[in-house]
Specification:
Blueprint (H helix, E strand, L loop, with lengths): L1 E3 L11 E6 L6 E7 L2 H16 L7 H17 L1 H12 L3 H24 L4 E2 L10 E9 L3 E4 L7 H13 L3 E4 L6 H12 L7 E3 L5 H9 L5 E5 L2 H8 L7 E5 L4 E5 L5 H13 L9 E7 H16 L19 H16 L3 E4 L12 E4 L6 H4 L6 E7 L2 H8 L4 E2 L1 E5 L3 H10 L4 E4 L15 E2 L2 E2 L4 H7 L1 E9 L5
Parallel strand pairs: 1-3, 6-7, 6-9, 7-8, 9-10, 11-12, 11-17, 12-15, 14-15, 17-18
Antiparallel strand pairs: 2-3, 4-5, 5-21, 10-20, 13-14, 16-19
Helix pairs in contact: 1-7, 2-4, 2-6, 3-4, 4-5, 5-15, 9-10
């Protein structure tokens, strides 16, 4: 069994060893050395020292070179990386292969961003007060970054957090998800293989919660990047040191509308993918479908047939479409929520049962109560709820009633209907004739309300991890 060492730039013996198990069959697949408060202090000291030594900062061209080499190495190892991600995270291999391709493209996005966005000219001559002056900005790293990541995209999320920090010129320390640390550790090693000095990207798998909290809340941390549960993210934000900035990405209960004029074939394929991709373990997974009453029943039954035909099983198999949930207790939790909804009047059109200890059947619920947990909380499992509606504004009001808001969608052939939903739905993005989980890595990606803080997407994350410093030159030559 492979053993992954501590990846901090200090020679301190590990605090312990953790075993990483495959979520599908529980098999032990690797061991990872863990760190404690000693390792937290050492990693932060190295990161802070690099940032405080301005002559040691990495120039843009050096960052570009590292990222180019890392992209090439990832491309060469794409199949191996995809299999590792599928095995440790449970996302089916074809989808994990897409994730690796996105991660490689994410490195290229980092390069494009820092090559083309290094500052700007600030107009000065428009007022008498600004006459005789020239002003411009340049972008500098904000300082040490600490990133805490989630399990559901074990490689691509790390690129969004760690590669973005490297591109911004910030030393970064990443704490990977407890269930999926291997892809993160492999990526940090790839950066080092590409020529990045150890101190600029460190990975620390903490042995306990106290060490993780100490890492995040230290006064030397300039920027905190968090992807994970709202409960943990908002708690950690409340404990950040004064002056630390942060970005939080949590989840939602994504609403999707199927208008009376929607193309059901198009909607069916999109909702099947957007609702059951990675067994619904996606922060913008389709969860609540509001369908016009004239077609709601037909849509729900067709969706149930489509979901029921999905192949569930071993994520490392090329023909698997839905893999396991990350932990057996999540299977039990999802089952409990579905049983509660069914007891309260929801009709289970397909699924509604665990297929084995680690997998839950793709499930479609028809008309669960608005106060059921499947209607009010993020289920993070392979469950899609369908609610018939008579009035679109009433459906939008029901969708807006939750304290979470992220991405939404509407299927319609009418531009006015599309714009009506777009202008009234509480969401940071609304997809027209596509599912709620659509994303490309350069677009803004933002949870609203309790769903998050700040804007994700690689160029936006790089901006967050930099400051824009302005120089104003006064000269009689400029009068």
């Amino acid at each position: 069994m492979n053993r992954y060492p501590l990846m901090i730039a200090a020679d301190i013996p590990a605090a312990g060893v953790a075993t990483v198990n495959a979520p599908y069959d529980g098999q032990a697949i690797a061991e990872v050395e863990t760190g404690d408060l000693r390792h937290v202090e050492a990693a932060l000291s190295v990161a802070d020292g690099l940032f405080r030594t301005r002559d040691a900062w990495l120039p843009v061209h050096a960052r570009v070179t590292v990222l180019e080499r890392a992209a090439a190495l990832m491309s060469e190892q794409a199949e191996e990386l995809a299999l590792l991600a599928a095995r440790e995270g449970g996302k089916p291999l074809p989808d994990s292969q897409v994730e690796v391709a996105r991660a490689v493209d994410g490195l290229r996005l980092c390069i494009e961003s820092i090559r083309s966005h290094q500052g700007e000219v600030v107009p000065m001559g428009g007022t008498a007060a600004g006459a005789g002056r020239l002003a411009f900005t340049r972008r500098e790293p904000i300082g040490p970054v600490v990133a805490v990541s989630a399990f559901n995209h074990p490689l691509n999320l790390i690129v969004h957090q760690v590669a973005a920090a490297v591109a911004a010129g910030c030393p970064v320390i990443v704490k990977p998800a407890e269930d999926t640390p291997l892809s993160c550790l492999r990526f940090v090693q790839l950066l080092r293989d590409a020529g990045l000095a150890e101190g600029w990207a460190q990975a620390l798998f903490t042995a306990d919660l106290a060490s993780a909290e100490a890492l995040v809340t230290d006064a030397r941390v300039a920027f905190f990047s968090f992807i994970g549960s709202a409960r943990v993210g908002w708690m950690l934000r409340s404990k950040l040191a004064p002056g630390a900035r942060c970005a939080l990405e949590h989840g939602g209960a994504a609403p999707l509308f199927v208008a009376a004029d929607a193309d059901l074939d198009v909607a069916m394929a999109a909702v099947t993918k957007g609702g059951f991709y990675h067994a619904g373990q996606v922060c913008v997974s389709v969860q609540r479908v509001f369908a016009h009453r004239d077609l709601a029943r037909e849509f729900a039954e067709r969706l149930a047939a489509s979901a029921g035909a999905l192949r569930v099983g071993d994520p490392t198999s090329g023909d698997t479409e839905v893999g396991p949930l990350i932990r057996p207790q999540e299977v039990r939790r999802v089952g409990a929520w579905v049983e509660e909804a069914s007891a309260a009047g929801a009709e289970v059109l397909c699924g509604g049962e665990a297929l084995e200890e680690t997998c839950y059947a793709p499930t479609v619920l028809y008309q669960p109560p608005d106060d059921a947990r499947v209607s009010t909380e993020e289920i993070f499992g392979p469950v899609v709820c369908v609610y018939p509606y008579d009035d679109l504004d009433d459906a939008i009001a029901r969708a807006n009633a939750l304290p979470v808001a992220f991405q939404g969608a509407v299927f319609t052939a009418d531009l006015e209907t599309a714009l009506h939903v777009f202008t009234r739905l509480d969401a940071s993005a609304v997809m027209i004739n596509d599912h709620t989980a659509f994303r490309v890595d350069g677009m803004p990606f933002a949870g609203l309300r309790q769903s998050g803080l700040g804007v994700g997407g690689i160029p936006h994350t790089i901006d967050d991890m930099q400051i824009e410093k302005m120089m104003v030159v006064k000269s009689k030559q400029l009068a």
